[in-house]
């Protein structure tokens, strides 16, 4: 369990939560209220139509966050921390966003921002458990929006 002991830790937790919440609201608005992201969603929608929704949900909500956070916030991030903390945040966030990037630069920026939030959470918590949880929540909300608004 993440233990936060000082006032600055508590403020950090509120700040991360606020940024994560704002990110989720922005993504919800982008995916439900705009039409230019429909091309961005085509692959995800095709996968949802072709796959068993429960298996797809397990893969996206459980497996992907664990595997991706291990690769980007554990292995790569720890390697880059030897250079510099800011470099580690920027490069790991950039590469993570690039892996998810398809065509839209706005989505790339949003993913880069989420990657930064996950990296900062990784630094402060000194674990990948909280970034995995936030990543899983993000993916669950994304699947919910896809299911409710697009399928």
TrEMBL record:
Spell out where the chain crosses the membrane: 12-31, 51-72, 79-99, 105-123, 130-150
User: Is GTP-binding there in the keyword field?
Assistant: no
Q: Which domain of life is it from?
A: Bacteria
Tell me the GO molecular function terms: metallopeptidase activity
- UniProt domain CAAX prenyl protease 2/Lysostaphin resistance protein A-like: residue ranges: 52-141
List keywords of the entry alphabetically.
Hydrolase, Membrane, Metalloprotease, Protease, Transmembrane, Transmembrane helix
Cite the Pfam families for this sequence. Answer: Rce1-like (PF02517)
Under which name does UniProt file this protein?
Answer: CPBP family intramembrane metalloprotease
